Fold these 4 entries.
Entry 1:
Amino acid sequence: MAEETTPLEEPVDVEETVEEETQARPLPGDPILDPLAEAFPSVEFTSFQPLVGPRQDTAHVAREDLVPFVTAVKDAGFETFVDTCAVDHLNRDPRYDVVINLLSMQHTQRLMIKVGVPGDDPRLDSLTSLYAGANFYEREAWDLMGIVFEGHTDLTRIVLPDDWIGHPLRKDYSVGSVPVQFKGSHKSS
Amino acid sequence: MSDTPHNVEGDTEAPVLEPPVQAADEGLNAVERRRAHDIWVAGTEEPDWVAGSTDEGAQELLPRDIDPAVEIQRGLVVDDDYLEEPTVIEDERQIINMGPQHPATHGVLRLHMELEGETVRRVKPIIGYLHTGMEKTAETLSYMQGSTNVTRMDYLSPLNNELCYSLVVEQLLGVEIPPRAQAIRVLMTELNRVASHLIWIATFGMDIGALSMMIYGFREREAILAFFEKVTGLRMNHNYIRPGGVAADLPDGWEEDVEEALDIVRAGLTDYEDLLSGNPIFLDRTLGVGIITPEEVQAYGATGPIARAAGVNFDLRKAFPYSGIEQYEFDVPLGKHGDTHDRYLVRMEEMRQSMRIVEQILETMPPGDYRTEDRKVTPPPRKRIDESMEALIHHFKIFSEGFKVPPGEAYQAVESPRGELGMYLVAKGGSKPWRLHVRTPSFATVQALPVMMTDLIIPDVIATLASLDPVLGDVDR
């Protein structure tokens, strides 16, 4: 009997741990995020507890709600701008995710805000009026992934040359045998 | 330029944005559509859009009257010290260019400066000269190979990069790291912090005219690099900390080597303080230069010694401890003024605190494995390969195809010598990352340069830049 039951128990254990790791809302007992979840019923919160390290909270926000939500988040104590990046999921709808990473030094807490951006209209409101630090990160996301941040005053290429065509971090931008686009390089090659 | 920061909402003068490629597709004929997706191939005739597209703006200062970016760059809560001198006429303003090959820019940073006499009124940092597409490269490398890629980003603290990468992969893998491997990781990264700060003080001294500091800093750093070479085989770009543990155990007699290196560095630090701390020229060049306030630090996401010199009590080793660093005792030094001199004091003290951690590791290094026993990640021992066909296949699979990481997303940050180094990993179940984004500390620091540099004179700009310790490989990736 024991030999028969052991293989059965193992997959059950695995499924349970997976369910524990990713919890959907609500977040019980979190004094900072709970009021935000109440004020924005459309925003979905998830949290991921890795084996070691702090819990990672993510807020999934619709594109229109981004600026009001981030304003509320900033008022709730997330005063530090950490990071913005875009992820290309290629065959998913919406195609892009823009991931905004905020930090509250006073509460020692992080919040990741995720916004889906459709591939045929990659536009999003800029956060530069809320966080000055969003400036370079949004330029980088525009440069490498082609997300247009509306309201940004200087949305130009930042790490690639001005005359570069295309956005290399997109999944349909091939790697490999692409010659480097230096201006005038055809004269020497 | 107006003195009061203002909100940029509703700005109608924003540069015309390129329409998204997909949306524009319908109205184009076949040739145009291909061109919209294509890039220009070197060796062919240069098309019009290459010749005519260099004035887009990334390399230019914006016109003064439509430049709300300046207010943004200068922070939302700015204690504005801009002094409008009525006698200055517009012709006396000039725009000059510093870098990218200027030796004081620590690599290939380019500063676009608007000067009024010798006073810098506006600065625009221009980056990208060292961009090598490492985030795209990371998508083509397996998880096993990935650490060779990230170690080259911040070439002065490679072990911190590897640690961050390993931690974020291990978060998704769900493997547990044995205590000895964790202690080795902390030992190596803290020694790396000391080595990196030694380079900083060498170049900082050189930039403000204390040329002997240049030699001294590199000399003491060599003691630590010699230890790194003994452990990892390389002086830089070690690829030593890997997902699952570290590449090899510490060599015999490592305690004596570390103690010897610590003695050399400790003696060196005393020398530096004799040389610099009371030096009137040094004080003149650093006191009250390049000030950043705590609010500006937080708005720009500047972290590490720059934030702590401004009095922001935030250290990731205390706030979000990783790799078992919470078992060691150390203090977080804080400055008061956020100027160049406070950054010097904070970094000097950080080196001492890092050495304190290393001393505790020397006493408490736990025995055991130096990498996880999880067969998913770790290849079988060499002896088993001779005996077992399955072990050989397993070894081959791990090194050719690479181990697989379950789908998920994770963000992990470590305290690199320059601040918060974060990696955001998106995995879709294969043996390669779907997306690896690196949040580098120098990128945020360079972004905050205009806040610190506005209304300084040019020599102070050099001192401020040197005090920030930007690594351009870290900025551009």
Entry 2:
Amino acid sequence: MIICERVSLSYGEPGRTERSHGPAVLRDISFAVPEGGFRWLLGHSGAGKTSLLRLLTLAVRPTRGHLRLLGTDIATASRKDLPALRRRIGVVFQEFRLLGHLSCYDNVALPLRLAGRPEGQIRADALELLRWVGLEDRLRQHPAELSGGEQQRVAIARAVITRPSLLLADEPTGNLDEGQAERLMQLLRELNRVGTTVVVATHNDSLVQRYRAEALVLDQGRLVAG
Amino acid sequence: MRWRPRGLRPAGADDLGLRHALAGWILPFLVAAMAFLASLSAGGVAGTAALARYWRIGAGAVLTVQVPEPRARLGGVDSPTRVARALETLAATNGVAQARALGDAEMADLLRPWLGRDAERIALPLPALIEVRLVPGAQVPMDLSKRLTAAVPGTLVEDHGPWLARLSGLAWSLQACALAVLALVAALAGGVIAVATRTGLAARRQAIEIIHGLGATDGYIAGRFARRAMAQTALGALIGTVVALPVLAGLADLARPLAGMAEATGPAWEALPAGFWFLLPGLPGVAALIGWGATQATVRLWLRRLP
């Protein structure tokens, strides 16, 4: 499902040679997460969690090493193969990344529209998920009109609406109260139980204690456990 | 029963928020200005083509025959005059549609620029001038001069063909210039649309990155931009073309004498060549296609920077 072999990542100008890249933010990362696996992604701020998530969300490609996601080698995959792969990956960003000009409903419906689903199915699924996250009365509201917690719930609904094969979350409970965080963890567990591979980056130790699972621990760009 | 609220936005709307990115009036205004120029150039292309055709087929089919001592008879008193015999010979020649001797007033009109107001009263032994119009597409018969000289000794045939061919060549070069201007305007329009699109891309960069990360293909994103740019360029081109119409009609009215329509009295737009009415309606469509193509290329090229 996820196979990472000696992966390194440096940020630099696209298309430049490896030597001209900046300092490596990830170094020789190797791990594997089987299909239907659940992993916490832990580490201090600046340890490389977000960079690793960016690799897994296909926002960047590895500078070195091999990354295999959902059966596709990311280093060698052609650019035109990536959109279909991205549609199988759900992502909950720490900063939500909602589209400000779209309503809650349209933000949640967007991944299904990109996948070319019929409007009837999109409507049914989006409304069901919005009701599930408790935002059925905020359908036409725009992100700017919502609280941080509500925006987080819209982002979660958007991430899971396609029933992704891989779900990645960056501090998904950061803006939620305890009850909502609990419901979110139950949703992630439920998705994981039906076969979705889940990776959650968090600083929330109590959450990690409550929901025991294997952890990938990063420190200064290196994997120190996992 | 399933919960189904009403009034939610339908599919295929403005996912990228381009209404805010590709400003409402700047692009249509610029395209309208270019469509105005393109309409003038298209008018030039159609006008010069019509002139060239007129000169080649219309005026180009005219030749002049000079008959010295036109009223002298070729034999006895019952025999025809020299000019009558020349007219008979021409009438019997293949390819000649009409042969007509110019009257005294027409001769005076021709001489007036050279001899002054009293040209008709000057006692000069003038030849008769016969204006010969050929059947459209017919060539001047090779043996015409020989046959006329045999029938009426001393006649001279003046073929206007070479001079008119040069005039026609001038019309074709003007047409080529107008076509070049048309191509330049089209290229310029493509450039302006590309710049406007890049501005839109910069303004919506974050939205594009989000939608790209959700799995949108390059074709989906480029299609969204191209659809909006196409609508804006078509609108601008339509406005520019409509504004150009009265200007073109005025210019065509001024050019009427060149096309042998000096006596025409109809409305100015009737003076526009027929070919123009085929070119003109196509302009907004062509502009829309340029808008679509330039936007598709610009967006797809820009998207290459994303993984």
Entry 3:
Amino acid sequence: MPEKLDVKQGTLALMILKTLEVLGPLHGYGIARRIEETSKHRLRLNYGTLYPALLKLEQEGFVKAAWRQSENNRRAKYYSLTTAGRKQLAREAREWHQTADLIAAFLAPRREAP
Amino acid sequence: MRHLRAALAHIAGVFTSHRADDDLREELQAHLDMATAENIRRGMPPDEARRQAMLASGGLTQAVEAVRDQRGLPWIESVAADIRYALRALRHSPAFAAVVVITLALGIGANTAIFSVVRGVLLKPLPHRDGDRLVYLRHSMDGPGGANILFSVPEVRDFRQGAPSLAGIAEYSPWTLVFQGQDGAVRINAGLVTGNYFEVMGLSPVLGRLTEPGDDGPGVSPVLVLTHEGWMKRFGGDSSIVGKQVTLEKQSVTVIGVLQPAPFFPNRVEALLNMVISEHHLSAFMVEGRTHRMTEMVARLAPGASLEQARSQVAAVSARIQREFTDAYDPGSHHRIAVIPFREVIGERARLTLWLLMGAAAFVLIIAAANVANLTLMRGARREHEIVVRAALGAGVGRLRRLLLVENLVLAITGAILGVVIAGGGVRLLTALVARYSPRADEIRLDGVVFGFTLALSVMVALLLSFLASLPREGSLASSILAGAHRISGNLGKQRLQRALVVVQIAVTVVLLAGAGLLTRTMIRLSDVDTGLRTEEVLTMQVPLLTPTEMLFNPAADAAAKERYDRMRDEMAALPGVVDVGIGSPLPLRSSGVRLEVKAEGKALAVGEAAPRAELRTANPDFFRASGIPLLRGRPFSTTDRQGSGNVVIINQTLADRLFPGEDPVGKRIAWTGDVLRFTPISGDWRTVVGVTGNTRDGGLDAEPRPVVFMPFAQMLAIGGGLVIRADSNVAALVPAATSIVRRIAPTAPLENVMTVAEIKDQSVSPRRVNAALISSFGILAVIIAAVGIAGVLAFSVSARTNEIGIRMSLGADSGRVLRMILGEGGVLLAIGLGLGVGGAFFATRVIHGLLFGVAPHDPVTFIGVAVTMAAVGIVACWIPALRAARIDPAITMRS
């Protein structure tokens, strides 16, 4: 079994936003499942991590929440992206790519010519 | 924007948390249900499916907590919880809470009250525009009465020309004026000012206008600016006063304005007028006489000029004029001029007393806080168990510390609120006291700054208390629990701290008591001072019949006034019980404003010797007998010493010793002398000494007797005359009859200082009495708190050692031995505290040297008395817990 990782601070918001962009309005369980599957179950998301993050995004105005009937006829809270959320996702994704490139460049096993 | 929005959401979250919690629980439940359903679909049995879902969730409660933290302002919510908890905990130990709150209330209340006075009188910026740029110039010379001899108009001119760092110099001549009010005539303190005065002082009117340069000089009409105080006192704040006429010095004067509230120095004044009201102030004497010093100088520093520049320029001018006008500056008297910030000079009389009180109050707070700290430590020891359990349940050390802090804050702030209530009462008392010393007493307020001070004080106390308590260190929890924290340990380190606090309390109390003792002895010494009068059954009353202008320029009025004084004397002498009635000025035990150089015939001054100066007083033949002033040599004045007969004087012992050491002065001749005589109606003729009187304490009981020359009332102008009435008993009962005689003969004259000699004496002692009483009450408070402190710590030590004492007793120690053991424990603390306290007092009492009279700052009687008192109280305080220890029943102790 692969090593389980805790979600790094700051990355979870990005994952949630991306999930909502790809799948459209979704409830907390759906988001958690999607993130775990996408990470091939290397990430572990418990309620104490997921729900505060959702609330934070909602407070910042990047997602909005509404109660709806779920596919199996259960009342559930659905989250969806707002316009501001879309912009934020684009911005954060861009920054993340840049950071990742930078870190990758740093960690590349290459010796400088003397 | 994003942050603002989030912040608003946080704040809203605080208020909507209940509804949101329900919402969240439903959401989490839905999540759990979906996860369970998914697990079942994957083939798990329902129970297992649910269990797995729960495991994956990581705990519902934790999730709710985490979301709550995100939702609201977690800090506020948990502090609110801490406050609720603190209140609950304190409700469960009401005795502890009450003792702490009351102790702190006394300490904080005393400090708040005294700080409000210190701030109002010493620290607050002056109400004058740019008041910090104002400086006061003080002209002094050696000898009694030389501390502040004012300036002459030519001198003011010299400084105007020679000191460019002084942008403006305001002339202000203190004066008394007879004001014809609705309830008869009164003399009021006033100031005669030049037109630039208000501009220099930076004061504005609240009504009407102020005097201007156009109001200077002769040929203008007299105008009056009321000070705020005078406006309130004489006219009840009547807003239609401007433009009205009032009668001052028997002249009609127009009120042109009312001044903003502002302190005056050296005296409070009710009115400010242009100079024209006093003929004398415009005379050539005043304007040209270099030694005719009647003016106070306040100046405003020029923009960019420093106090040091002003000082050196003033010193240079002073040195130059002293070289130039040798007649006006007797070199032996060392004329000098100090330039002092106006704010400082206004506070100078109050400063020492106030800082002393502030220090005493701070000491009381230290003792109170030490006591509270001890109580907290003891309570902390009993709460160790609770604290360890809380720590075990997951409260971090930071959180525990905060819990303690909140609890102490609740205590300290409750104490502070109660303290402010106490201070409110105290401030009123203190204001009355301080009004004697400072013209700024009415600026004393319990305002925002004072409350800020109080709040800062209570927060500081709370912080101190919280960090005294030791908490289990992070990581040491397990060992604490293993050690069985139910044991009330009161570990050694903590007890050492408690003991140190007790020692501090005792030491500080000793210092306070020493101060109180010295001040009390000062007061007793002072009331024992011999006034120089042989009896106290003497009633004095001042009846000034003439205005200065009348006295100086109207001989007919002077003669008429003397005739009226004689009629008053004759009628009073006929009252039942009256033994003697004298006429004179000023009255006994009051200082004279007229101080002149005097010389003896045939005696030259040594080079550099200061010219002797004496107070001029007048007396009729019966004055000495009526006042009880003993005649040591020669004869009193007689009715034949009249205008036109030979000039005679009587001098007092001090002057006799100065002018005629080792000789009999009777028959010798003396004369007034000095440049200033030119400006007075007093001649420099030789006068024969006919008698020598004993010394009297005219400058206050604490002042050395001054040289005095008495002139016959009949041979001198009627300066401010008064009557002295001596009765065989209960002279105070004569007041109504004597008053009605004055009212009938002089219905429009002011009647002042109707007081018995005993009352005058008391007036001189009473400021010291208030000082002594205040410091003594602080001292007594300190003793009580310290006694409770030492008893409390020993009682705690006994209860912590009950087991040990039980064992000792069962091994054969009798109760006497246990008693001695506990007494010894307290005795050591007491001895160390006493030692430190006496040492500290030795240094501290030097500071109050200036407030003492007749006792040395390290008066051995006081020090021994204080040490014995503290030791006695301390031993009694130790005895109570010691007795309890001695009564421990070993059988019961060992079983429990």
Entry 4:
Amino acid sequence: MEEKTYWFDVGRVSAVPLRGARTVRTPSREIAVFRTASNDIFALENKCPHKGGPLSEGIVHGRKVACPLHNWIINLEDGEATGADHGCAKKFPVKIERGHIYIDMGVLAPAE
Amino acid sequence: MGQIEKFPQPHRPAPDAAAHKLVVIGNGMAAGRLLEEFFARNTTPARVTLFGAEPRVNYNRIMLSPVLSGEKSFNDIVIHDDAWYAAHSVDLRRGEAVVAIDRAAKYVETAGGDRVSYDKLVIATGSMPFIIPVPGANLPGVVSFRDLDDVEKMHAACDAGGHAVVIGGGLLGLEAAAGLAVKGMKVSVVHLMPHLMERQLDPSAGYLLKNAIAARGIDVFTEANTDAILGDDRVTGVKLKDGRVLPADLVVMAVGIRPNATLAKAAGLDTNRGVIVDDLMRTSDADIYAVGECVEHRGQTYGLVAPLYDMAKTLAAELAGEKPAGFVPAATSTKLKVTGIDLFSVGDFSDDDENNEVVLRDPSRGVYKRVILRDEKVVGAVLYGDTADGAWYFDLLKKGEDVSAIRDMLIFGQAYQGGSPMDPTAAVAALPDDAEICGCNGVNKGAIVKAIQSGLTTLDEVRANTKASASCGQCAGKVDLLLAATLGDTFQAARKHMCKCTDLTHEEVRGFIREKQLKSLPAVMQELGWKSSGGCPSCQPALNYYLIATWPGEYRDDYQARFINERVHANIQKDGTYSVVPRMWGGVTTPDELRVIADLADRYKLMVKVTGGQRIDLLGVKKADLPAVWAQLLNAGMVSGFAYAKGLRTVKTCVGKDWCRFGTQDSTGLGIKLEKLMCGSWTPAKVKLAVSGCPRNCAEATIKDIGVICVDSGYDIHVSGAAGLHVRATDLLGHVETEEEALEVCAAILQAYREQSAYLERVYKWVDKFGLENLRKLIFEDHDARKGLYERFMISQRAARKDPWAERAAGKDMHEFMPLAVLGPKSPVAAE
Ligand code: SRM
Ligand SMILES: Cc1cc2nc3c(=O)[nH]c(=O)nc-3n(C[C@H](O)[C@H](O)[C@H](O)COP(=O)(O)OP(=O)(O)OC[C@H]3O[C@@H](n4cnc5c(N)ncnc54)[C@H](O)[C@@H]3O)c2cc1C
Ligand code: SF4
Ligand code: FES
């Protein structure tokens, strides 16, 4: 089966602070776009698997973010909670081209 | 990257007129290697015409750095001399640039109007230095660093002397800066990113590199954005976006390169960033190839020679009709060619996740090593100060070997492999007596064990007696293990590590920050031997606070190290909205303030709640609305109440003698003065005060961090109250007679707490450790100490007393409050 991709340009890498995050609003959900100390970009649905806390507001350390509400530690690579906690924030594929961040919304297509 | 050998080639018979015509555009490193590889195959004779825009033979561009610094001459770096071209019957057209390709008629045209036809054409035009488009970028005195002409221009500038500004703190910029410094220029490096060579190094290695560059007398400005290059008929300076002006007689732009695909594009070949090629280096025209930095292969462009050499090999085989497998990009390693700086990086170093990395820091030798693993395989390495094992890690990376069996010893390098793993205590116990434990003070194991056996039981005692771990503290963990090994069961490790990134306690870290003048997170982490590369959510905010408190006005607050509330100056709520609490000085408000609050509540549909701290909370503000809400509060003269801060929260008051029949002093007035004196101050944990007008204590001053109870004869000063998770009544610290003294005493107590307490400890916990009696002596008996504390508090307040809401309503940190993008249902879908 051919996979469809829907790449959206959501802005420049440099617009996201190092060790920080920005959000992307879509009609159905909010996405958190993270930039790590070493300049890697990740995108997760902005909703903590615990009680829906906005992950974009957490402290980014390594490839993880600490949820601002109750400090669950979420892995940015796959959205999974780490340690003893269980749950997963939806992950979106990302690519960087000419300094711009593209997010693939195609993963949503089947769900919609 | 080593020197490239000049290898003599056997004389080749001159190809006859009917031979295949091969034309190569560009005589750089890729073209040179291509011809070598091609002739080595010695198959189809071809008539080769080689156009080089530079008026010289092929040379090793990499070695321009030592030419700049004077360590080498041009002759040392020539790869192909005239004899080589003659021997291979290559028609080298030096100094002749090709200006057009006619694909239909299959010829190239030179700037001089010559037309030379080809059967096969190779484009090897390299790349062009990127010139940032700021005003003044084309003034005389602005140069790039790409070819010998640039080096000659720089040498001429060095002869005249003066200031050089290098824009760009990457590989190229730093090599230029180091070379110019050797040649006697006063050099500054201006770099956009927070640390040098951010593409090859992580912040810790970047910090060490910055020190090494600074030690060469070069000024490094990071996070510095160039605004303009100044000068009328030649450069005189560089202006940065923050307004600073650096004097300059020479400006070197080394901010990056761009594939040089102009010719190919004009000829209608497929191009994107570079000339698009397939795995066999074929362009979209079957008779035209491209090789080197001008190409784009599978979306990637290149800036180091190793992959270009692989391309050259593939293309040579293709031209020789060998049907090669095709070019496959491989990991490349980087080294900086500045004498005396040892630095190595390879692969993906971005996985700064403490579970997937092994870090070794030796602060006394300035060494930092980090190996990054994924699925138990080496995927990257960053080495600074000791790069001997670079090749070994690179090899493990290329082979993709499972390293789980040697993971524990991996970071020590190849020489240490093969030993059997032990538990850490046993490993320390097994060390010989002369093994050095503390590198800074040269203390060996025998001396420490002897000291412990003479009756010492704590790390502090060992440190005081032997000096072990007294300097960088990095060996504190090992000394702890020696205590455990020597004392056995009697040893209880009472030490509380700051977090899992370090063996040091909060107090030790604070001490070292002061003594060793550490002024940034990477500096602390390197010099104190952090075990992770970037810290964790628990040490980042703590270190940020310690740095602010120790270096007021000097340290740049690292907002990303702060909890969200302190980053956006509002309290996050369970639904992701925020609450806004303006100051109501001493609990006093006005009709005007209340009107604005009422209007805001109507307009933004907010809940209005009177807090337990005598002021009003507006709940339910959307993040994007925060700056607008603040702007309206500011209009009515209201400022941030810091309800979100590890800082001064509220000063509660009662009405006091102006109204109350029992009041002895103006408790409301003193409360307002205290709040104005202390507002904006960052503290280890939140701080609350109260002033009651008489011992009936209606302001509940006896459950505050600092409480003042007014009495007929003056003011009783209390400390150590709390009413949260622990309820604790205050202790009386002392008595003063005047309001001025009360203010000074309270500020001095607060400053002592700011300077000494561990992060997140409320005042009462700190006083329990410090001793109430010691605090009383410090504040009430040692007059000079109290004055000193008060003065230091005022200095730190000079930097802190800015209203964060006013700054943000005026536009600071706007990115915090705006989404990166808003995608509507009809947003265009990028075609792919
Ligand atoms: C708003 C308020 C409750 C109210 O509606 O009245 C409040 C709200 C919160 N308090 Fe409180 N505290 C409020 C007065 C108090 C008081 C009473 C006081 O200040 O006189 C206390 C007890 C006094 C004390 O601190 O010793 C108090 C003891 C706590 C504690 C326990 C602290 C401790 O060291 O034991 C916490 C938890 C913490 O800080 O870790 C806490 C934490 C919180 C947090 C910040 C919880 C959180 O992290 O989200 C709440 C933030 C709500 C928000 O977004 O505004 N709040 N909290 C009060 C704001 C006062 C103000 O104007 O700034
Ligand atoms: C100072 C310096 C230090 C470096 N250090 C390192 C290092 O340590 N390690 C490393 O791996 N790499 C290093 N590099 C990068 C390395 O030099 C390049 O990757 C390599 O030179 C690229 O080879 P190339 O043949 O593609 O391009 P180039 O070597 O740039 O050659 C292209 C040539 O084509 C000519 N040309 C362009 N257009 C035309 C035209 N229309 N007609 C005729 N001729 C034309 C140009 O004049 C140029 O001579 C360094 C580069 C510099 C400048
Ligand atoms: S007591 Fe404080 S922390 Fe607890 S729910 Fe109320 S406001 Fe929140
Ligand atoms: S909502 Fe994220 S930790 Fe609770």
